[in-house]
Design goal:
Elements lengths: L2 H33 L23 H14 L7 E4 L5 E5 L5 E6 L4 E6 L6 H8 L6 H24 L4 H21 L1
Antiparallel strand pairs: 1-2, 2-3, 3-4
Length: about 180
């Protein structure tokens, strides 16, 4: 490798690293948090209160569900029942609506949607969420994220900055903030 090529690769690595440093830190930190989202109660604050309502006969609800369970041809209760504004009813069965029945009573038709993971993308998604192998993979994923944070931070501390470096670093932070703002 010629010295000119080596210098060019060094500059590309430096500039790209500075531009991506904020995103890498953000990605690693949020990845660790998402791996342990259950420990943080899924990042929700719940407030519960109880109010009195008149006692109602649930026979109408039972009859409603029984009517559609017969049409769907499933004896088990759905995980979720959604009533849509366009007068459609969705019955979701399984995790995240693995099987969904969309009933349009006004049209006399029903759509059945079965969700199947697309491989290899579902595997990649599971790997990112540290799902497949339990505690070992979770520890490995968290360890890699912590190492990436360490490498990124030490790299930022070791570099002797030039004006262009600072502009690239600031540009990376602006891109990160812009991306977070657009994603919100």
């Amino acid at each position: 490798m010629t010295p000119d090529t080596r210098r060019l690769l060094h500059k590309l690595h430096r500039w790209g690293g500075l531009l991506l440093a904020g995103a890498v830190l953000f990605y690693c930190a949020t990845g660790v948090l998402l791996n342990h989202r259950q420990a943080f109660d899924y990042f929700t604050a719940k407030e519960s209160r109880t109010v009195a309502v008149p006692v109602a006969d649930t026979a109408a609800l039972d009859a409603f569900l029984a009517t559609y369970k017969r049409q769907i041809n499933r004896p088990d209760d759905p995980t979720v029942v959604r009533l849509r504004k366009d007068r459609t009813i969705e019955f979701l069965y399984g995790s995240h609506g693995k099987t969904t029945y969309v009933v349009r009573p006004g049209e006399g038709r029903m759509e059945i949607i079965d969700k199947h993971p697309l491989e290899p993308f579902a595997l990649l998604n599971d790997l990112h969420k540290a799902v497949p192998t339990g505690p070992f993979w979770l520890g490995l994923a968290d360890g890699v994220a912590v190492l990436l944070v360490g490498v990124t931070v030490t790299g930022l501390l070791v570099i002797r900055y030039r004006r262009l470096d600072l502009l690239l670093l600031a540009g990376g932070v602006v891109l990160l903030v812009l991306g977070a703002w657009l994603g919100a």
